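call fold(seq) -> C-alpha coordinates
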Amino acid sequence: MRNHKNIQWAMILILLSGALLRWSAIGPMSDMLSYDEAYYGLDALSLIQHPRLTPFLPANHGRESLWCYLLIPFISLWGARPFALRLAATMVGILTLAVTYRLGTEVLNRRAACWATLALAICQWHVHQSRTAIRAILLPLVGALAFWALFQAHRTDRRSLWALAGVWMGLLLYTYFSSLVWIAYAILPTGWWLLRGRKSGPAVTLVLAGLLFLPMLLYGLLHPQDVLQRPEAVRVSTMGEFWDNVRVWGKAWFHQGDPDARYNPISRPVVDTALIPLFLAGIIALWWAVRRRWYILWIVGLMAASLLPSLLTTHAPHFLRAVGLVVPVALVVGAGAWGIEETARRFGVGKKAFLIPAFLFTLAGWATLRDCNERWLHHPEVFTLMEQHVNHASNFIRENLPSDTPVYFSPFALSHPVIAFRRADLAPRPVGAFDSHICMVVPERPAVYVSVTLYEPDFGQKLSRWADTSVLFQDPQQNPPRYTVFQAVPKPEFLRGEGMSRAVFGDKVEMRWFQPISPTAKAGDVVTVYLGLRALQPLEQAYSVFVHLYGDPPPWEGGTLWSQGDSLVCEPYPSLLWRTDEWVLQPFFLPIPAEVPAGRYEIAVGMYEAPA
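ret:
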Protein backbone atom coordinates (compact mmCIF):
# COMPACT_ATOMS: atom_id res chain seq x y z
CA MET A 1 0.00 0.00 0.00
CA ARG A 2 2.83 2.38 0.89
CA ASN A 3 4.57 1.68 -2.40
CA HIS A 4 1.29 2.44 -4.20
CA LYS A 5 1.00 5.81 -2.41
CA ASN A 6 4.60 6.63 -3.32
CA ILE A 7 3.81 5.99 -6.99
CA GLN A 8 0.74 8.21 -6.73
CA TRP A 9 2.82 11.07 -5.37
CA ALA A 10 5.47 10.41 -8.01
CA MET A 11 2.82 10.59 -10.73
CA ILE A 12 1.53 13.91 -9.40
CA LEU A 13 5.08 15.32 -9.56
CA ILE A 14 5.60 13.89 -13.05
CA LEU A 15 2.38 15.38 -14.38
CA LEU A 16 3.20 18.75 -12.81
CA SER A 17 6.70 18.65 -14.30
CA GLY A 18 5.31 17.73 -17.71
CA ALA A 19 2.74 20.52 -17.49
CA LEU A 20 5.38 23.10 -16.51
CA LEU A 21 7.63 22.09 -19.40
CA ARG A 22 4.75 22.42 -21.86
CA TRP A 23 3.48 25.69 -20.41
CA SER A 24 6.87 27.29 -19.79
CA ALA A 25 7.09 28.99 -23.20
CA ILE A 26 3.41 29.65 -23.80
CA GLY A 27 4.01 33.37 -23.09
CA PRO A 28 6.71 34.07 -25.69
CA MET A 29 5.06 31.66 -28.14
CA SER A 30 1.90 33.78 -27.99
CA ASP A 31 3.73 36.05 -30.45
CA MET A 32 4.24 33.10 -32.81
CA LEU A 33 1.95 31.35 -35.26
CA SER A 34 3.17 29.39 -38.23
CA TYR A 35 1.53 29.11 -41.65
CA ASP A 36 0.20 25.59 -40.97
CA GLU A 37 -1.00 26.38 -37.44
CA ALA A 38 -2.97 29.37 -38.73
CA TYR A 39 -4.80 27.15 -41.23
CA TYR A 40 -6.07 25.01 -38.35
CA GLY A 41 -7.26 28.16 -36.61
CA LEU A 42 -9.01 29.33 -39.78
CA ASP A 43 -10.75 25.98 -40.15
CA ALA A 44 -11.90 26.16 -36.54
CA LEU A 45 -13.21 29.71 -37.12
CA SER A 46 -15.07 28.43 -40.17
CA LEU A 47 -16.69 25.71 -38.06
CA ILE A 48 -17.70 28.33 -35.48
CA GLN A 49 -19.16 30.69 -38.07
CA HIS A 50 -20.82 27.94 -40.12
CA PRO A 51 -21.49 25.01 -37.75
CA ARG A 52 -21.41 21.66 -39.53
CA LEU A 53 -20.14 18.13 -39.20
CA THR A 54 -17.45 17.12 -41.65
CA PRO A 55 -14.77 14.41 -41.39
CA PHE A 56 -12.24 16.26 -43.54
CA LEU A 57 -11.22 19.85 -44.31
CA PRO A 58 -9.62 20.30 -47.76
CA ALA A 59 -7.64 23.53 -47.21
CA ASN A 60 -3.82 23.51 -47.14
CA HIS A 61 -3.42 20.01 -48.69
CA GLY A 62 -6.30 18.67 -46.57
CA ARG A 63 -6.53 17.62 -42.94
CA GLU A 64 -8.63 15.37 -40.73
CA SER A 65 -11.12 17.44 -38.76
CA LEU A 66 -10.96 16.28 -35.11
CA TRP A 67 -8.24 18.76 -34.10
CA CYS A 68 -10.18 21.71 -35.55
CA TYR A 69 -13.31 20.74 -33.62
CA LEU A 70 -11.24 20.50 -30.45
CA LEU A 71 -9.94 24.05 -31.04
CA ILE A 72 -13.46 25.53 -31.09
CA PRO A 73 -13.94 25.99 -27.30
CA PHE A 74 -10.44 27.43 -26.91
CA ILE A 75 -10.94 30.00 -29.67
CA SER A 76 -14.43 30.79 -28.37
CA LEU A 77 -13.00 31.56 -24.92
CA TRP A 78 -9.64 33.19 -25.77
CA GLY A 79 -10.26 34.56 -29.26
CA ALA A 80 -8.44 34.12 -32.56
CA ARG A 81 -5.00 34.31 -30.98
CA PRO A 82 -1.97 32.03 -30.91
CA PHE A 83 -2.45 31.59 -27.15
CA ALA A 84 -5.77 29.79 -27.69
CA LEU A 85 -4.22 27.29 -30.10
CA ARG A 86 -1.15 26.73 -27.92
CA LEU A 87 -3.25 26.14 -24.82
CA ALA A 88 -5.23 23.47 -26.66
CA ALA A 89 -2.01 21.74 -27.75
CA THR A 90 -0.48 21.79 -24.28
CA MET A 91 -3.64 20.36 -22.73
CA VAL A 92 -3.57 17.49 -25.23
CA GLY A 93 0.11 16.90 -24.44
CA ILE A 94 -0.53 16.79 -20.69
CA LEU A 95 -3.48 14.43 -21.10
CA THR A 96 -1.22 12.17 -23.17
CA LEU A 97 1.06 11.79 -20.13
CA ALA A 98 -1.82 10.58 -17.96
CA VAL A 99 -3.03 8.17 -20.64
CA THR A 100 0.49 6.84 -21.21
CA TYR A 101 0.64 5.93 -17.54
CA ARG A 102 -2.66 4.05 -17.81
CA LEU A 103 -1.43 2.26 -20.92
CA GLY A 104 1.87 1.58 -19.21
CA THR A 105 0.17 -0.09 -16.25
CA GLU A 106 -1.57 -2.46 -18.67
CA VAL A 107 1.67 -3.34 -20.47
CA LEU A 108 4.38 -2.92 -17.79
CA ASN A 109 4.60 -3.19 -14.04
CA ARG A 110 3.50 -0.08 -12.16
CA ARG A 111 6.96 1.34 -11.41
CA ALA A 112 8.09 0.90 -15.01
CA ALA A 113 4.90 2.64 -16.15
CA CYS A 114 5.70 5.53 -13.81
CA TRP A 115 9.19 5.86 -15.28
CA ALA A 116 7.74 5.63 -18.82
CA THR A 117 5.44 8.56 -18.07
CA LEU A 118 8.42 10.58 -16.85
CA ALA A 119 10.28 9.68 -20.06
CA LEU A 120 7.45 11.15 -22.12
CA ALA A 121 7.05 14.13 -19.78
CA ILE A 122 10.63 15.33 -20.42
CA CYS A 123 10.88 14.10 -24.04
CA GLN A 124 11.97 17.11 -26.07
CA TRP A 125 10.14 15.81 -29.14
CA HIS A 126 6.81 15.55 -27.37
CA VAL A 127 7.29 18.74 -25.32
CA HIS A 128 7.89 20.78 -28.48
CA GLN A 129 4.99 19.28 -30.41
CA SER A 130 2.74 19.81 -27.39
CA ARG A 131 3.30 23.53 -27.89
CA THR A 132 2.75 23.67 -31.65
CA ALA A 133 -0.88 23.70 -32.69
CA ILE A 134 -0.75 20.96 -35.31
CA ARG A 135 -3.17 18.04 -35.46
CA ALA A 136 -0.48 15.35 -35.22
CA ILE A 137 -0.31 15.88 -31.44
CA LEU A 138 -3.68 14.11 -31.17
CA LEU A 139 -2.33 10.83 -32.54
CA PRO A 140 -0.36 9.72 -29.43
CA LEU A 141 -3.27 10.66 -27.15
CA VAL A 142 -6.11 8.98 -29.06
CA GLY A 143 -3.90 6.05 -30.06
CA ALA A 144 -2.80 5.42 -26.47
CA LEU A 145 -6.44 5.61 -25.35
CA ALA A 146 -7.42 3.04 -27.98
CA PHE A 147 -4.73 0.55 -26.96
CA TRP A 148 -5.32 1.09 -23.24
CA ALA A 149 -9.05 0.39 -23.61
CA LEU A 150 -8.34 -2.55 -25.91
CA PHE A 151 -5.87 -4.24 -23.56
CA GLN A 152 -8.00 -3.62 -20.49
CA ALA A 153 -11.05 -4.96 -22.33
CA HIS A 154 -9.12 -8.11 -23.26
CA ARG A 155 -8.01 -8.56 -19.67
CA THR A 156 -11.41 -7.98 -18.02
CA ASP A 157 -13.81 -8.82 -20.89
CA ARG A 158 -16.04 -5.90 -19.95
CA ARG A 159 -18.43 -5.01 -22.75
CA SER A 160 -18.22 -1.28 -21.96
CA LEU A 161 -14.43 -1.35 -22.43
CA TRP A 162 -14.71 -3.22 -25.74
CA ALA A 163 -17.12 -0.50 -26.86
CA LEU A 164 -14.80 2.26 -25.61
CA ALA A 165 -11.91 0.71 -27.51
CA GLY A 166 -14.02 0.84 -30.68
CA VAL A 167 -14.84 4.50 -30.12
CA TRP A 168 -11.21 5.50 -29.64
CA MET A 169 -10.10 3.36 -32.56
CA GLY A 170 -12.71 5.02 -34.77
CA LEU A 171 -11.75 8.53 -33.66
CA LEU A 172 -8.10 7.77 -34.37
CA LEU A 173 -8.87 8.03 -38.10
CA TYR A 174 -9.73 11.71 -37.64
CA THR A 175 -6.43 12.74 -36.03
CA TYR A 176 -3.65 12.53 -38.63
CA PHE A 177 -2.99 10.50 -41.77
CA SER A 178 -0.18 8.59 -40.01
CA SER A 179 -2.87 7.08 -37.78
CA LEU A 180 -3.77 4.60 -40.54
CA VAL A 181 -0.89 2.33 -39.53
CA TRP A 182 -1.86 2.53 -35.85
CA ILE A 183 -5.44 1.64 -36.76
CA ALA A 184 -4.27 -1.37 -38.78
CA TYR A 185 -2.02 -2.36 -35.88
CA ALA A 186 -4.97 -2.15 -33.44
CA ILE A 187 -7.26 -4.15 -35.73
CA LEU A 188 -4.75 -7.04 -35.93
CA PRO A 189 -4.99 -8.21 -32.28
CA THR A 190 -8.71 -7.41 -32.17
CA GLY A 191 -9.36 -9.58 -35.20
CA TRP A 192 -7.13 -12.33 -33.79
CA TRP A 193 -9.04 -12.38 -30.50
CA LEU A 194 -12.32 -12.50 -32.40
CA LEU A 195 -11.20 -15.45 -34.51
CA ARG A 196 -9.51 -17.38 -31.69
CA GLY A 197 -11.92 -16.86 -28.81
CA ARG A 198 -15.56 -17.21 -27.94
CA LYS A 199 -15.82 -13.65 -26.69
CA SER A 200 -18.10 -11.26 -28.57
CA GLY A 201 -16.33 -8.16 -27.22
CA PRO A 202 -13.87 -7.82 -30.12
CA ALA A 203 -16.81 -7.79 -32.51
CA VAL A 204 -18.28 -4.84 -30.60
CA THR A 205 -14.96 -3.01 -30.95
CA LEU A 206 -14.72 -3.63 -34.69
CA VAL A 207 -18.37 -2.75 -35.38
CA LEU A 208 -18.20 0.55 -33.47
CA ALA A 209 -14.86 1.45 -35.06
CA GLY A 210 -16.29 0.62 -38.48
CA LEU A 211 -19.31 2.83 -37.90
CA LEU A 212 -17.06 5.73 -36.94
CA PHE A 213 -14.87 5.08 -40.00
CA LEU A 214 -17.88 5.43 -42.34
CA PRO A 215 -18.04 9.26 -42.62
CA MET A 216 -14.37 9.42 -43.61
CA LEU A 217 -14.70 6.49 -46.02
CA LEU A 218 -17.72 8.09 -47.70
CA TYR A 219 -15.94 11.44 -47.91
CA GLY A 220 -12.93 9.70 -49.44
CA LEU A 221 -15.10 8.01 -52.05
CA LEU A 222 -16.77 11.30 -52.98
CA HIS A 223 -13.63 13.46 -52.77
CA PRO A 224 -10.62 11.18 -53.36
CA GLN A 225 -8.52 14.09 -54.62
CA ASP A 226 -8.87 15.85 -51.25
CA VAL A 227 -8.06 12.88 -49.03
CA LEU A 228 -5.21 11.51 -51.17
CA GLN A 229 -3.71 14.87 -52.10
CA ARG A 230 -1.11 15.05 -49.32
CA PRO A 231 -0.12 11.35 -49.11
CA GLU A 232 0.28 11.23 -52.89
CA ALA A 233 2.41 14.39 -52.91
CA VAL A 234 4.90 13.17 -50.29
CA ARG A 235 5.15 9.39 -50.92
CA VAL A 236 8.46 7.88 -51.99
CA SER A 237 8.42 6.52 -55.54
CA THR A 238 11.35 4.06 -55.54
CA MET A 239 12.83 1.42 -53.25
CA GLY A 240 16.05 3.42 -53.30
CA GLU A 241 14.30 6.34 -51.62
CA PHE A 242 12.81 3.96 -49.05
CA TRP A 243 16.23 2.53 -48.13
CA ASP A 244 17.67 6.05 -47.96
CA ASN A 245 14.94 6.82 -45.41
CA VAL A 246 15.87 3.70 -43.44
CA ARG A 247 19.50 4.89 -43.30
CA VAL A 248 18.70 8.41 -42.12
CA TRP A 249 16.32 7.04 -39.49
CA GLY A 250 19.13 4.78 -38.28
CA LYS A 251 21.17 7.90 -37.54
CA ALA A 252 18.18 9.72 -36.05
CA TRP A 253 17.85 7.38 -33.06
CA PHE A 254 20.95 8.55 -31.18
CA HIS A 255 22.74 11.11 -33.35
CA GLN A 256 20.76 13.68 -35.35
CA GLY A 257 17.00 13.78 -35.80
CA ASP A 258 14.67 15.81 -37.98
CA PRO A 259 16.50 18.98 -39.12
CA ASP A 260 13.24 20.89 -39.65
CA ALA A 261 13.08 23.52 -36.92
CA ARG A 262 9.27 23.49 -37.02
CA TYR A 263 9.08 19.96 -35.63
CA ASN A 264 12.34 19.34 -33.79
CA PRO A 265 14.38 22.00 -31.99
CA ILE A 266 18.09 21.87 -32.72
CA SER A 267 17.89 18.52 -34.60
CA ARG A 268 17.68 16.47 -31.40
CA PRO A 269 17.70 12.65 -31.84
CA VAL A 270 14.81 10.32 -31.03
CA VAL A 271 16.42 9.28 -27.74
CA ASP A 272 17.99 12.06 -25.70
CA THR A 273 21.68 11.52 -25.00
CA ALA A 274 21.16 11.20 -21.24
CA LEU A 275 18.46 8.55 -21.80
CA ILE A 276 20.45 6.30 -24.15
CA PRO A 277 21.60 4.05 -21.26
CA LEU A 278 17.98 3.69 -20.11
CA PHE A 279 16.75 2.91 -23.62
CA LEU A 280 19.43 0.27 -24.21
CA ALA A 281 18.79 -1.23 -20.78
CA GLY A 282 15.07 -1.20 -21.56
CA ILE A 283 15.55 -3.45 -24.58
CA ILE A 284 16.80 -6.12 -22.17
CA ALA A 285 14.62 -5.25 -19.17
CA LEU A 286 11.39 -5.54 -21.17
CA TRP A 287 11.57 -9.32 -20.68
CA TRP A 288 10.93 -8.86 -16.96
CA ALA A 289 9.06 -5.52 -16.97
CA VAL A 290 6.12 -6.56 -19.17
CA ARG A 291 3.00 -8.14 -17.70
CA ARG A 292 2.72 -10.58 -20.60
CA ARG A 293 5.55 -11.70 -22.83
CA TRP A 294 3.70 -10.90 -26.06
CA TYR A 295 3.66 -7.24 -25.05
CA ILE A 296 7.34 -7.15 -26.00
CA LEU A 297 6.41 -8.01 -29.57
CA TRP A 298 3.61 -5.43 -29.44
CA ILE A 299 5.96 -2.62 -28.32
CA VAL A 300 8.52 -3.46 -31.03
CA GLY A 301 5.75 -3.65 -33.60
CA LEU A 302 4.33 -0.30 -32.50
CA MET A 303 7.76 1.26 -33.07
CA ALA A 304 7.83 -0.12 -36.60
CA ALA A 305 4.25 0.98 -37.26
CA SER A 306 5.03 4.48 -36.01
CA LEU A 307 8.10 4.76 -38.24
CA LEU A 308 6.37 3.51 -41.37
CA PRO A 309 4.63 6.79 -42.40
CA SER A 310 7.98 8.57 -42.44
CA LEU A 311 9.80 5.69 -44.13
CA LEU A 312 7.26 5.73 -46.95
CA THR A 313 7.32 9.52 -47.47
CA THR A 314 9.82 12.22 -48.32
CA HIS A 315 11.93 14.39 -46.00
CA ALA A 316 12.82 11.63 -43.54
CA PRO A 317 13.44 11.59 -40.64
CA HIS A 318 10.13 13.45 -40.37
CA PHE A 319 9.25 13.75 -36.66
CA LEU A 320 5.71 14.94 -37.34
CA ARG A 321 4.73 11.91 -39.43
CA ALA A 322 6.41 9.57 -36.95
CA VAL A 323 4.97 11.29 -33.86
CA GLY A 324 3.46 8.02 -32.60
CA LEU A 325 7.00 6.78 -31.91
CA VAL A 326 7.14 8.78 -28.67
CA VAL A 327 4.80 6.27 -26.94
CA PRO A 328 6.71 2.98 -27.49
CA VAL A 329 10.06 4.75 -26.94
CA ALA A 330 8.79 6.03 -23.58
CA LEU A 331 7.69 2.50 -22.63
CA VAL A 332 11.14 1.09 -23.44
CA VAL A 333 12.91 3.87 -21.52
CA GLY A 334 10.56 3.29 -18.59
CA ALA A 335 11.38 -0.42 -18.60
CA GLY A 336 15.09 0.44 -18.68
CA ALA A 337 14.80 2.84 -15.74
CA TRP A 338 12.97 0.17 -13.73
CA GLY A 339 15.57 -2.43 -14.73
CA ILE A 340 18.50 -0.27 -13.62
CA GLU A 341 16.70 0.59 -10.37
CA GLU A 342 16.02 -3.12 -9.62
CA THR A 343 19.57 -4.11 -10.50
CA ALA A 344 20.96 -1.43 -8.17
CA ARG A 345 18.70 -2.72 -5.39
CA ARG A 346 20.02 -6.24 -5.86
CA PHE A 347 23.56 -4.92 -5.48
CA GLY A 348 22.72 -3.38 -2.12
CA VAL A 349 22.04 0.25 -3.04
CA GLY A 350 18.67 -0.02 -1.30
CA LYS A 351 15.95 2.61 -1.39
CA LYS A 352 18.24 5.15 -3.03
CA ALA A 353 18.44 3.05 -6.19
CA PHE A 354 15.85 5.28 -7.88
CA LEU A 355 18.37 8.15 -7.84
CA ILE A 356 20.36 6.58 -10.69
CA PRO A 357 17.63 6.81 -13.36
CA ALA A 358 16.31 9.99 -11.70
CA PHE A 359 19.69 11.66 -12.31
CA LEU A 360 19.62 10.73 -16.00
CA PHE A 361 16.06 11.99 -16.35
CA THR A 362 17.07 15.27 -14.69
CA LEU A 363 19.85 15.76 -17.24
CA ALA A 364 17.46 15.02 -20.11
CA GLY A 365 14.80 17.34 -18.68
CA TRP A 366 17.29 20.17 -18.30
CA ALA A 367 18.43 19.67 -21.92
CA THR A 368 14.79 19.76 -23.07
CA LEU A 369 14.12 22.96 -21.15
CA ARG A 370 17.27 24.57 -22.58
CA ASP A 371 16.70 23.51 -26.18
CA CYS A 372 12.96 24.22 -26.31
CA ASN A 373 12.93 27.45 -24.31
CA GLU A 374 16.26 29.02 -25.12
CA ARG A 375 18.00 27.63 -28.18
CA TRP A 376 14.86 27.10 -30.27
CA LEU A 377 13.14 30.35 -29.32
CA HIS A 378 16.24 32.27 -30.43
CA HIS A 379 16.97 30.13 -33.49
CA PRO A 380 17.38 32.42 -36.56
CA GLU A 381 14.82 30.42 -38.57
CA VAL A 382 12.09 30.68 -35.95
CA PHE A 383 11.32 34.38 -36.57
CA THR A 384 10.28 33.61 -40.15
CA LEU A 385 8.86 30.13 -39.59
CA MET A 386 6.54 31.35 -36.84
CA GLU A 387 5.64 34.67 -38.55
CA GLN A 388 6.65 36.65 -35.47
CA HIS A 389 6.56 39.94 -37.38
CA VAL A 390 2.83 39.50 -38.08
CA ASN A 391 1.91 38.20 -34.63
CA HIS A 392 3.95 40.59 -32.52
CA ALA A 393 2.71 43.57 -34.51
CA SER A 394 -0.89 42.30 -34.33
CA ASN A 395 -0.67 42.05 -30.55
CA PHE A 396 0.71 45.60 -30.35
CA ILE A 397 -2.08 46.97 -32.57
CA ARG A 398 -4.83 45.13 -30.69
CA GLU A 399 -3.63 46.44 -27.34
CA ASN A 400 -2.75 50.02 -28.29
CA LEU A 401 -4.77 51.33 -31.23
CA PRO A 402 -8.46 52.29 -31.62
CA SER A 403 -10.79 49.62 -32.96
CA ASP A 404 -11.67 51.64 -36.10
CA THR A 405 -8.09 52.05 -37.35
CA PRO A 406 -7.42 50.45 -40.77
CA VAL A 407 -4.49 48.02 -40.66
CA TYR A 408 -2.34 46.90 -43.60
CA PHE A 409 0.39 44.27 -43.82
CA SER A 410 3.20 44.28 -46.40
CA PRO A 411 4.59 42.38 -48.27
CA PHE A 412 1.71 39.91 -47.94
CA ALA A 413 -1.60 38.87 -49.43
CA LEU A 414 -4.78 38.91 -47.38
CA SER A 415 -5.10 35.19 -48.14
CA HIS A 416 -1.99 34.49 -46.04
CA PRO A 417 -3.39 32.21 -43.29
CA VAL A 418 -1.66 33.96 -40.39
CA ILE A 419 -2.99 37.35 -41.46
CA ALA A 420 -6.41 35.87 -42.18
CA PHE A 421 -6.52 34.32 -38.69
CA ARG A 422 -5.24 37.41 -36.85
CA ARG A 423 -7.69 39.50 -38.87
CA ALA A 424 -10.48 37.99 -36.76
CA ASP A 425 -8.59 39.00 -33.61
CA LEU A 426 -8.06 42.56 -34.87
CA ALA A 427 -11.75 43.02 -35.76
CA PRO A 428 -13.59 45.35 -36.08
CA ARG A 429 -10.53 47.10 -37.54
CA PRO A 430 -10.49 46.88 -41.36
CA VAL A 431 -7.49 44.72 -42.36
CA GLY A 432 -5.79 44.61 -45.75
CA ALA A 433 -2.53 43.30 -47.18
CA PHE A 434 -0.45 44.08 -50.24
CA ASP A 435 3.09 43.91 -51.57
CA SER A 436 4.75 47.31 -51.74
CA HIS A 437 7.01 46.05 -54.53
CA ILE A 438 3.85 45.83 -56.68
CA CYS A 439 1.40 48.40 -55.31
CA MET A 440 0.47 50.57 -52.33
CA VAL A 441 -2.87 50.99 -50.58
CA VAL A 442 -3.71 54.30 -48.89
CA PRO A 443 -7.10 54.89 -47.22
CA GLU A 444 -8.72 58.30 -46.90
CA ARG A 445 -8.21 58.33 -43.14
CA PRO A 446 -5.30 57.63 -40.73
CA ALA A 447 -4.10 54.04 -40.91
CA VAL A 448 -1.45 51.70 -39.55
CA TYR A 449 0.98 49.66 -41.64
CA VAL A 450 3.03 46.63 -40.63
CA SER A 451 6.07 46.30 -42.89
CA VAL A 452 8.64 43.51 -42.85
CA THR A 453 11.63 45.82 -42.96
CA LEU A 454 13.88 42.86 -43.63
CA TYR A 455 12.35 42.58 -47.14
CA GLU A 456 11.34 46.18 -47.89
CA PRO A 457 13.68 48.63 -46.11
CA ASP A 458 12.34 51.57 -48.18
CA PHE A 459 8.66 51.05 -47.27
CA GLY A 460 8.46 54.16 -45.11
CA GLN A 461 9.95 56.28 -47.90
CA LYS A 462 7.39 54.93 -50.40
CA LEU A 463 4.50 55.55 -48.05
CA SER A 464 5.62 59.11 -47.21
CA ARG A 465 4.95 60.11 -50.82
CA TRP A 466 1.22 59.81 -50.13
CA ALA A 467 0.93 60.26 -46.35
CA ASP A 468 2.62 61.88 -43.38
CA THR A 469 4.37 58.90 -41.87
CA SER A 470 5.77 58.14 -38.41
CA VAL A 471 7.13 55.05 -36.69
CA LEU A 472 4.90 53.65 -33.94
CA PHE A 473 6.78 50.49 -33.04
CA GLN A 474 9.75 48.42 -34.21
CA ASP A 475 11.12 44.96 -33.64
CA PRO A 476 12.59 45.28 -30.13
CA GLN A 477 14.87 42.27 -30.48
CA GLN A 478 17.10 43.28 -33.38
CA ASN A 479 18.79 46.32 -34.88
CA PRO A 480 18.21 47.06 -37.71
CA PRO A 481 14.60 46.03 -37.05
CA ARG A 482 13.09 43.08 -38.89
CA TYR A 483 9.65 44.72 -38.93
CA THR A 484 8.20 48.19 -38.34
CA VAL A 485 4.74 49.48 -37.48
CA PHE A 486 4.02 52.83 -39.19
CA GLN A 487 1.23 55.31 -38.63
CA ALA A 488 0.20 57.25 -41.73
CA VAL A 489 -2.12 60.25 -42.21
CA PRO A 490 -3.00 60.85 -45.89
CA LYS A 491 -1.78 64.17 -47.27
CA PRO A 492 -4.54 66.73 -48.08
CA GLU A 493 -3.27 67.21 -51.63
CA PHE A 494 -3.41 63.47 -52.17
CA LEU A 495 -7.03 63.32 -51.01
CA ARG A 496 -8.10 66.33 -53.10
CA GLY A 497 -6.42 65.04 -56.25
CA GLU A 498 -5.81 68.61 -57.44
CA GLY A 499 -4.52 68.85 -60.99
CA MET A 500 -4.90 65.11 -61.56
CA SER A 501 -6.72 63.60 -64.53
CA ARG A 502 -9.71 61.51 -63.55
CA ALA A 503 -11.92 58.87 -65.15
CA VAL A 504 -14.80 56.73 -63.92
CA PHE A 505 -15.49 53.25 -65.25
CA GLY A 506 -19.07 52.04 -65.15
CA ASP A 507 -19.85 53.93 -61.94
CA LYS A 508 -17.76 51.27 -60.22
CA VAL A 509 -14.13 52.42 -60.21
CA GLU A 510 -12.56 55.85 -60.16
CA MET A 511 -9.10 56.23 -61.73
CA ARG A 512 -6.60 59.05 -61.26
CA TRP A 513 -3.21 59.74 -62.78
CA PHE A 514 -0.96 60.38 -59.76
CA GLN A 515 2.19 61.09 -61.71
CA PRO A 516 2.64 63.12 -64.91
CA ILE A 517 3.58 61.07 -67.97
CA SER A 518 6.66 62.20 -69.86
CA PRO A 519 5.55 63.94 -73.08
CA THR A 520 8.46 62.44 -75.03
CA ALA A 521 10.06 59.01 -75.25
CA LYS A 522 12.37 57.23 -77.62
CA ALA A 523 12.44 53.69 -78.93
CA GLY A 524 13.61 51.27 -76.25
CA ASP A 525 12.33 53.36 -73.34
CA VAL A 526 9.77 52.16 -70.82
CA VAL A 527 7.08 54.70 -70.00
CA THR A 528 5.71 54.50 -66.44
CA VAL A 529 2.03 55.26 -65.94
CA TYR A 530 1.31 55.66 -62.22
CA LEU A 531 -2.38 55.19 -61.49
CA GLY A 532 -4.61 55.31 -58.44
CA LEU A 533 -7.86 53.37 -58.34
CA ARG A 534 -10.75 53.52 -55.89
CA ALA A 535 -13.89 51.38 -55.72
CA LEU A 536 -17.06 53.48 -55.82
CA GLN A 537 -19.13 50.49 -54.68
CA PRO A 538 -18.35 46.94 -53.49
CA LEU A 539 -16.91 45.06 -56.47
CA GLU A 540 -17.81 41.52 -57.45
CA GLN A 541 -15.11 41.06 -60.06
CA ALA A 542 -11.33 41.26 -60.22
CA TYR A 543 -10.10 43.80 -62.77
CA SER A 544 -7.04 44.30 -64.95
CA VAL A 545 -5.72 47.56 -66.35
CA PHE A 546 -4.51 48.00 -69.91
CA VAL A 547 -2.06 50.67 -71.03
CA HIS A 548 -1.83 50.93 -74.83
CA LEU A 549 0.25 52.95 -77.28
CA TYR A 550 -1.78 54.15 -80.31
CA GLY A 551 -0.66 55.97 -83.43
CA ASP A 552 -2.73 57.69 -86.09
CA PRO A 553 -5.00 56.10 -87.16
CA PRO A 554 -5.92 54.19 -83.95
CA PRO A 555 -6.36 50.39 -83.99
CA TRP A 556 -10.16 50.56 -84.27
CA GLU A 557 -9.69 52.46 -87.56
CA GLY A 558 -7.15 49.98 -88.88
CA GLY A 559 -4.04 51.42 -87.26
CA THR A 560 -1.36 49.60 -85.29
CA LEU A 561 -1.35 48.83 -81.58
CA TRP A 562 2.31 49.56 -81.06
CA SER A 563 2.69 48.45 -77.45
CA GLN A 564 0.68 47.36 -74.43
CA GLY A 565 1.27 46.95 -70.72
CA ASP A 566 -1.63 44.94 -69.31
CA SER A 567 -1.58 43.86 -65.69
CA LEU A 568 -3.80 42.77 -62.84
CA VAL A 569 -4.44 45.56 -60.37
CA CYS A 570 -2.57 44.90 -57.11
CA GLU A 571 -2.64 41.11 -57.38
CA PRO A 572 -2.01 40.50 -53.62
CA TYR A 573 -5.01 42.75 -52.83
CA PRO A 574 -7.47 42.18 -55.71
CA SER A 575 -10.37 44.51 -56.38
CA LEU A 576 -12.86 42.05 -54.86
CA LEU A 577 -11.44 43.09 -51.47
CA TRP A 578 -11.28 46.87 -51.94
CA ARG A 579 -13.16 49.21 -49.65
CA THR A 580 -14.69 52.41 -50.94
CA ASP A 581 -12.51 54.60 -48.69
CA GLU A 582 -9.09 53.48 -49.95
CA TRP A 583 -6.89 54.11 -52.97
CA VAL A 584 -4.86 51.41 -54.65
CA LEU A 585 -1.73 52.91 -56.22
CA GLN A 586 0.29 51.03 -58.81
CA PRO A 587 2.75 51.79 -61.62
CA PHE A 588 2.03 50.23 -65.03
CA PHE A 589 4.82 49.94 -67.55
CA LEU A 590 4.57 50.55 -71.27
CA PRO A 591 7.68 49.47 -73.25
CA ILE A 592 8.39 51.43 -76.46
CA PRO A 593 9.48 48.94 -79.17
CA ALA A 594 12.60 49.65 -81.20
CA GLU A 595 10.61 49.57 -84.48
CA VAL A 596 8.27 52.43 -83.51
CA PRO A 597 8.81 55.29 -85.99
CA ALA A 598 9.12 58.86 -84.79
CA GLY A 599 5.81 60.64 -84.48
CA ARG A 600 2.95 61.62 -82.24
CA TYR A 601 1.31 58.85 -80.22
CA GLU A 602 -1.43 58.53 -77.65
CA ILE A 603 -1.42 56.47 -74.45
CA ALA A 604 -4.80 54.92 -73.74
CA VAL A 605 -5.68 53.52 -70.33
CA GLY A 606 -8.69 51.40 -69.45
CA MET A 607 -10.02 48.53 -67.34
CA TYR A 608 -11.51 45.14 -68.11
CA GLU A 609 -12.64 42.10 -66.17
CA ALA A 610 -9.68 39.93 -65.30
CA PRO A 611 -9.85 36.38 -66.69
CA ALA A 612 -10.89 33.82 -64.09
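The CA atoms of residues 529 and 588 lie 5 Å apart.
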